Amino acid sequence: MSEYLNHAEILNRCEKINQNYEVDPAFFDSIIDELLDSDFDTEEVILKGFKRLLKEVDFEIDRMEQHAGMKPNCFIGCAFCCYFPIIITKMEAKMMLKEIEHFPKDRKQKIYQHWERYFAEHQTKLDTALNIDFNEEDAKLTYKQLDLPCPMLDPETNTCMAYEIRPIPCRTYLNYANPKVCAENHMPKEPFSYEFLYDYYMGAMNEIMQALYENGEELFVDYPSDVWSQDYLPAWLKRRNEEGDEAL
Ligand code: SF4
Prior knowledge:
mainly alpha; 6% strand; binds iron/sulfur cluster; 12 helices; two-stranded antiparallel ribbon
């Protein structure tokens, strides 16, 4: 018997999640309360909140998988989903970049050097990709067909260079079927997306920012406008690569 679920079985189990699993917002709320009551400085509150809320999305997916009795077949070095368009807010881009600034020197340098090569090598495809209107119906497929890797994807290991701070779409897209469906199709139908968890993560992140803002703290994001500004991840990183840390 195949160890992989087929599409119909995946739909059945996801229906089980839809029908009788409820996300408990208390997991997200407790992170907000704990950090706002802490003695951490403003930047620490933001960055710890960012990382803990991202991780909480992983935990929530684990809980749902246990409920539905399924485990993803995604594995290290399989990165077909790293060719999808990843759209994030300016606030998230700034938090990612700030985290990368705090990476150990060698790790950070490797990323910055990779971006130098990446943005030169993929200039033509990027010109096309970053001009695709991500609100258009076919935007995802059009982008994926360009075969443009994410700028965070390490070409030597085929792994994410900022795995612990990878954005929500990279965490919430999981394949419970045979991994070959991702290799053989631009838009495989089998993978399941828990993208609805974005609202819990972003709602909590927004609450943290709003509380700090109303308290008159100095923020490294422009609140609230950065929450509403969205673009492709490569577009934000391209700006950073061309103009340095103050680019955004
Ligand atoms: S941020 Fe990381 S996990 Fe997400 S698409 Fe890019 S390389 Fe892949």
